[in-house]
Design a protein that fits this description.
Length: about 675
C-alpha cells in the first residue's frame, strides 16, 4: 500500500514558492496529517525531495457561497441533508525546511507523505552534527515507528559558536522546569561520551521540584532505577518509546544523590537552619559584614539598597563607611558585624565634623536602611549579629555535579543578590579556567539554570540595573567563558531583549494567545501560534540555531514527579494477581476512622484549605494536586492511594492538626 496521501498543487492565485508549498489530501486521508507534522514532497521522476513543516490545513467544498450551502439544506435546517453530495477537499500548507538535493527554487510537482526519521534528520541538518545533544523526540504521526530522536548541536548550545537556552510558557502547563532538567541530564550524559567536564548551578525559585531531583515518584518512595525498569516494562506506548530512544542515545535521566548538593539561605535569627521547604536535605548559608567588605566581594554594602534609596548622597556615605572599616582605620577592629556597624553609626552621628561633608539626615537615612535591611528584609541571608559568614564554596563545584540553591522562601531583592553573588564568582572562576589549555581545565563549562528570569533581567528600565547588566553581559559573552544560561519565564516579552536575542535555542510551551502576539515570538509562523496556545504538557516547540524551521518535540517525564497514580497502574499491570484489596491494615483503618470523627461537624473542609493550613505537609515535598487526590481517597474510600510512607506521614499530620485544634 502506498504511503502517499497528497500531491503538490500550484495555482495562479496560490503558487508554490521557494519557502512554501501547498498540497491537497486524497479522499479519506484527512486524518493522516496534522499541523506540526513534517512531510516529504517527492518527485519520483527525478528523485528530488522537499521537506516541509505543515503550518496550516484548510477544508473546502464546491459551494460557491454561504448562501448556496444554506439554501441546499432546506433553507437553513441544520438536520437536513443536501440533495446532492458536496465535493470536498483538504488543502495543507507546508513551510520548506530543506531539500535533497539542495535546491533554491519552488517544487513544481510531487507526491506527499510523512517524512521518515532519516529524512527528518536530513531536513534539519541533524545528520551533520558531530557532537549531538539528545533533546527530545519528534512525534511525526501516530505510529511510534515514525518517531525519531531530536538532536541539538553542542557547539551552538554550549558554545563556542552559540550558547544559552530560553524556555517560556504558562506556569504549570508548559513544563519548563521538567524540560530544562531533562536537557541538563542529557548534557551531562553526553559530556561523559565526549570527554567534556560540565557542572550545573540551578536556582530553585518556586516550588520544590529542583530539591527532589534524586527522588523517584511524587512521594519519593521509588528508587529511580527501579522506576525506569517499571516504565520500560509496563508504561504506556508513548512513555516506553520516548524512554527507549533516550536510552539508545545513552541518556541517563537518573540523578545520583552523590552528585547533588542543596543549599538555602539561613532562617532569620537562626543561621544554623535553612530557610527551605525541605530543610532536612539542605545546607544553610549566610553572609556577615566581612563578606561584603572583601576587595573581591561581588555583593557590596551598596547592594543592600535598591531604587531611590541608593542616590549619589547615600553612595557617598557608604564610601565613607567602607573607608572607616578598611585596614588601619578606627572601626576596623571594633566593628565586625552589622549590629556593631549600626551601633557605631548611631553613636557617631552626634559627633561634630565626623561625617563631613555628608549631612546628618543622609547618614541617618543610610543607617535606617542598613538596619531595616539586615535586621529585617534581608535577615537570614545577612546575619545581623554574626561576625563570621558561612558562604557557599561555589568555586569547589566539580564536573558532573548539580548544585541547587533554594531561594524560593526569600524576597525578590534577596533572590537577586544570591544570583548576582554566585554567578559573578563563577564568571571569575571560568575566566581563569579559560586561560588554560583545554585539556588542562578543571571545567569546560557551567550551566546556570534559573526560573522567573524576568525578575532578574526584566525588560525596560526597571529592577536593579547592576544585576540586570550582569545577566546581559553573561548572555553576550558567557559562551566564551563557558557559562551557559538556561533561563525560564512565563512571558518572554517581559525579559530583556538582549538576553532573549543572545539565546541560540528556545523551548516554547503552552502560551497565551495574547502573549504570542508580541514581536519576540515573530519567529513562529502565524498559523502555528494556535497550536502553541493549546499544547499539552510535555510537548514543546523547539527553535535551534542550526534548524531551518522550528520543530515540535516531546521528552521523558522526570522521575522525581512521576504521578503516583501512574506508578500504581503500572504496578497493577505488572502483577495482576497482586492487585491490592480495598481493605487496609487495622492500624490504618483506625486512622481513617479517627479522621472521619475529627472532620465530623467541621464546616468548609476542603483539601486545598487543609494543605494551606498544615504547613508541614509542604515540607514533605508534596504538591497541592497530589495531596487533594490523597485526601479524597482517605475520606471517600478509606484507603491510601499509594504504598509510600510519605502519604502516611501526611495523614498523621492532618490528624495531629485537627486534634490540636479540638483540644
Amino acid at each position: 500500500m502506498s504511503n502517499y496521501f497528497g500531491r503538490i498543487c500550484a495555482i495562479e492565485r496560490v503558487p508554490s514558492t521557494v519557502d512554501e508549498f501547498n498540497f491537497w489530501l486524497a479522499r479519506g486521508c484527512a486524518d493522516k496529517v496534522e499541523v506540526g507534522y513534517i512531510v516529504t514532497a517527492e518527485n519520483t521522476e527525478n528523485g528530488e525531495k522537499v521537506f516541509g513543516l505543515v503550518t496550516d490545513i484548510k477544508f473546502f467544498t464546491d459551494a460557491e457561497s454561504i448562501l448556496v450551502d444554506y439554501f441546499s439544506h432546506e433553507f437553513g435546517s441544520p438536520t437536513a441533508q443536501s440533495p446532492t453530495e458536496r465535493q470536498e477537499i483538504h488543502v495543507a500548507t507546508a513551510s520548506v525546511i530543506g531539500s535533497s538535493p539542495y535546491r533554491a527554487r519552488p517544487m513544481s510537482s510531487g507526491m506527499v507523505r510523512l517524512a521518515t526519521p532519516d529524512e527528518i534528520h536530513q531536513a534539519y541538518g541533524m545528520d551533520q552534527i558531530n557532537n549531538k545533544i539528545f533533546c527530545g523526540v519528534i512525534v511525526n504521526g501516530p505510529s511510534p515507528e515514525n518517531w525519531t530522536p531530536a538532536f541539538m548541536d553542542e557547539k551552538f548550545l554550549l558554545g563556542p559558536e552559540g550558547a544559552h537556552l530560553n524556555i517560556s510558557g504558562a506556569s504549570g502547563l508548559a513544563t519548563k522546569t521538567s524540560a530544562a532538567i531533562f536537557l541538563i541530564s542529557s548534557i551531562l550524559s553526553a559530556a561523559e561520551q565526549y570527554k567534556r567536564r560540565y557542572a550545573v548551578l540551578a536556582f530553585n525559585v518556586k516550588g520544590g521540584d529542583l530539591l527532589r531531583l534524586g527522588a523517584g515518584g511524587e512521594d519519593g518512595e521509588y528508587p529511580q532505577d527501579e522506576l525506569i525498569k517499571l516504565i520500560k516494562s509496563n508504561g504506556n506506548i508513548e512513555a516506553r518509546k520516548i524512554l527507549s530512544l533516550a536510552e539508545e542515545n545513552r541518556v541517563n535521566i537518573c540523578f545520583s544523590k552523590t552528585k547533588l548538593k542543596m543549599f538555602a539561605p539561613a532562617k532569620a535569627g537562626a543561621v544554623s537552619k535553612p530557610n527551605s521547604l525541605l530543610p532536612e536535605s539542605v545546607k544553610p548559608f549566610h553572609w556577615a559584614l566581612k563578606d561584603v567588605m572583601k576587595d573581591d566581594a561581588p555583593v557590596r554594602l551598596c547592594d543592600l539598597f535598591e531604587g531611590d534609596d541608593v542616590d549619589d548622597k547615600a553612595m557617598g556615605v557608604l564610601a565613607k563607611v567602607e573607608e572607616l572599616l578598611d585596614d588601619g582605620n578606627m572601626w576596623k577592629d571594633r566593628v565586625t558585624s552589622f549590629k556593631e556597624l549600626v551601633r557605631e553609626m548611631s553613636t557617631s552621628i552626634g559627633k561634630k565634623n565626623f561625617w563631613d561633608p555628608h549631612h546628618h539626615s543622609t547618614v541617618s537615612k543610610v543607617l535606617r536602611q542598613v538596619k531595616s535591611n539586615c535586621e529585617g528584609i534581608l535577615n537570614g541571608l545577612f546575619a545581623y549579629d554574626e561576625e563570621q559568614g558561612n558562604d557557599i564554596k561555589i568555586e569547589n563545584i566539580a564536573p558532573g555535579e548539580v548544585w541547587v540553591v533554594d531561594i524560593e522562601a526569600i524576597n525578590d531583592r534577596a533572590k537577586r543578590l544570591v544570583f548576582h553573588n554566585l554567578t559573578t564568582r563563577l564568571a571569575n572562576l571560568m575566566e581563569i579556567e579559560s586561560l588554560k589549555p583545554k585539556d588542562e581545565r578543571r571545567l569546560h563549562g557551567i550551566i546556570v539554570f534559573v526560573d522567573e528570569l524576568n525578575k532578574f533581567a526584566p525588560s525596560g528600565a526597571v529592577g536593579n540595573y547592576r544585576i540586570k547588566q550582569q545577566i546581559v553581559e553573561l548572555a553576550a559573552r558567557g559562551r566564551s567563558l563557558g557559562i551557559i544560561l538556561f533561563g525560564a519565564e512565563q512571558f518572554a516579552s517581559r525579559v530583556d531583549k538582549e538576553v532573549i536575542g543572545n539565546a541560540s535555542s528556545h523551548f516554547l510551551g503552552r502560551t497565551e494567545m495574547v502573549e504570542l502576539e508580541d514581536r519576540v515570538y515573530g519567529w513562529i509562523p502565524k498559523n502555528l501560534r494556535f497550536v502553541v496556545g493549546n499544547l499539552e504538557k510535555g510537548r514543546l516547540l523547539l527553535r535551534h540555531a542550526t534548524y531551518g524551521r522550528p520543530v515540535f518535540i516531546k521528552f521523558p517525564q522526570p522521575l522525581y514527579n512521576y504521578p503516583t497514580t501512574a506508578i500504581e497502574e503500572m504496578l497493577v499491570r505488572q502483577t495482576p494477581q497482586n492487585v491490592r484489596s480495598v481493605s487496609v491494615p487495622d492500624v490504618s483503618v483506625k486512622k481513617f476512622e479517627m479522621l472521619q470523627m475529627l472532620l465530623k461537624g467541621q464546616k468548609g473542609i476542603h483539601p486545598i484549605k487543609i494543605y494551606s493550613e498544615v504547613s508541614k505537609i509542604k515540607g514533605l515535598g508534596i504538591n497541592q494536586d497530589t495531596f487533594s487526590d490523597w485526601f479524597r481517597s482517605w475520606v471517600s474510600q478509606q484507603k491510601f492511594r499509594g504504598r509510600g510512607t510519605t502519604e502516611k506521614k501526611a495523614l498523621d499530620l492532618v490528624i495531629e492538626h485537627y486534634e490540636s485544634h479540638k483540644a
